[in-house]
């Protein structure tokens, strides 16, 4: 398994030749986040965003937002001898009464001399925006817009909306943050190095490159975290603390512990960072906790955060969440598939890897033929059935991925008399189903294009399911193009497996 160290990624960034010019424009909750992955955006543009609580002076809190937009999601256009794009980032916060408490907007002009870099899904633009607010609990919205591309759809075009995505969440900036002593929230970072003059990621003596998704593993096998310690000014001789760190897996088992000594000599806020080698941990969802203690081992303050370990390349793709959703729908029963949707990305990978091991027809070899066939089917569906949405989510795509190539396909793009759907079906499906499928409710002849797919027995399922009443008679699916633009809808299925 190849794992790229931070230095290797940094070199890739340098080679990409990407330049971000960010201009700040300070101007005077709606969608549900993906289940199990609150840092991932919803909408047309995929990105990750996270909010971390810090102090901002003696009686104000600061919500620090980190945002990473993969280059693959940004629409670069030729601009002379380079490629250009423009993003707009907006952060808003509302207090518990629903009143807007903060608003910040920035625009970023991007330029690249490397076309390949503009389609990379791992590299990306990383930004940090902070809002200072009174102590309390808040909801927030992070909106990223691609100013070069309009949203699809008549209403969006009338409103001149741009391609966009958003992350919605909650952040607790309450009184706990102002107890003495206290620990800030944990900011997970791709890497933490020595502070560089002029760096937008400079925090005290550190340069902290945030990782808002909190994804680690294949490309970065060390988890770095930045946090701040707050307390009243120490006496002249200084003040000592003990910091106990621990990591728990999803089952609640402790997989890592460490104890370190901290000493402060002046001031009331102290930046700290730590890194942990996780190269021997399996994929999954993990919780890191920090406990600040006195010399007697009594806890004075606590902070924690969660991160994901992802070792499979599938988990790092821009469409990883969608790919895993299709995988689960193909391999798992419907009840288990729903449970799967609410897992974090690390736990999804762990589940999927275990399922593929079970489905491997030749476990003693290095190849998993079932998994390779699944990838081929997904690629085929995306290549042949993508109209409004990606082909793997279309009705024909779902059937193809589950059962493979049909044993027989009857296609009529422009049905004429004697070749309409009703004639083609004959008595192949129950009469009641046929009436429902062929009833256009328009009072005119049924001229819809259609496809009838027939599988002998159970088709070519990657993980066969049970249903004796379906095995002997084969399986049949009927699709119709109701709107006439090539998007075929499943109208009839003889199996309970797909609806």
From TrEMBL:
Keywords: Signal. It comes from the Bacteria. The keyword Signal applies. Residues 1-24 form the signal peptide. This is GWxTD domain-containing protein.
């Amino acid at each position: 398994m190849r794992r790229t160290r931070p230095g290797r990624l940094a070199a890739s960034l340098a080679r990409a030749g990407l330049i971000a010019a960010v201009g700040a424009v300070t101007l005077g909750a709606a969608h549900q986040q993906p289940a199990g992955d609150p840092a991932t955006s919803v909408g047309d543009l995929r990105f990750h965003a996270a909010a971390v609580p810090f102090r901002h002076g003696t009686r104000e809190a600061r919500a620090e937002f980190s945002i990473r937009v993969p280059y693959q999601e940004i629409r670069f256009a030729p601009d002379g001898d380079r490629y250009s794009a423009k993003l707009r980032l907006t952060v808003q916060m509302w207090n518990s009464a629903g009143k807007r408490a903060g608003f910040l907007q920035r625009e970023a002009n991007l330029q690249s001399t490397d076309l390949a870099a503009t389609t990379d899904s791992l590299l990306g633009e990383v930004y940090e925006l902070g809002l200072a607010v009174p102590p309390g609990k808040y909801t927030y919205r992070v909106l990223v817009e691609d100013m070069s591309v309009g949203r699809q759809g008549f209403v969006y075009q009338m409103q001149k909306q741009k391609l966009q995505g958003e992350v919605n969440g909650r952040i607790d900036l309450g009184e706990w943050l102002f107890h003495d002593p206290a620990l800030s929230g944990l900011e997970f970072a791709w890497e933490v190095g020595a502070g560089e003059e002029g760096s937008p990621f400079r925090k005290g003596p550190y340069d902290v490159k945030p990782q808002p998704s909190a994804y680690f593993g294949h490309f970065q096998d060390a988890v770095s975290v930045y946090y701040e310690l707050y307390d009243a000014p120490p006496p002249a001789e200084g003040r000592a603390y003990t910091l106990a760190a621990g990591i728990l897996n999803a089952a609640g088992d402790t997989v890592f512990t460490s104890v370190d000594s901290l000493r402060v000599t002046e001031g009331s806020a102290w930046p700290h960072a730590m890194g942990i080698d996780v190269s021997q941990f399996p994929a999954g969802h993990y919780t890191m906790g920090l406990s600040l203690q006195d010399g007697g081992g009594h806890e004075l303050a606590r902070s924690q955060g969660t991160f994901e370990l992802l070792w499979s390349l599938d988990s790092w793709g821009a469409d990883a969440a969608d790919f895993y959703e299709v995988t689960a729908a193909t391999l798992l029963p419907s009840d288990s598939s729903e449970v799967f949707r609410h897992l974090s990305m690390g736990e999804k990978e762990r589940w999927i890897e275990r399922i593929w091991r079970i489905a491997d027809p030749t476990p003693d070899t290095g190849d998993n033929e079932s998994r390779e066939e699944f990838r081929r089917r997904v690629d085929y569906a995306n290549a042949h059935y993508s109209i409004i949405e990606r082909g793997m989510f279309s009705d024909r795509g779902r059937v193809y991925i589950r059962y493979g190539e049909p044993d027989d396909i009857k296609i009529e793009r422009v049905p004429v008399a004697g070749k309409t759907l009703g004639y083609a079906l004959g008595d192949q499906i129950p009469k009641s189903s046929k009436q429902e499928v062929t009833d256009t409710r328009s009072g005119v002849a049924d001229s819809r294009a259609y496809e009838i797919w027939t599988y002998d027995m159970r088709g070519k399922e990657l993980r066969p399911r049970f249903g004796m009443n379906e095995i002997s008679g084969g399986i049949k699916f009927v699709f119709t193009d109701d709107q006439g633009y090539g998007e075929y809808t499943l109208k009839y299925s003889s199996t309970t497996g797909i609806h």
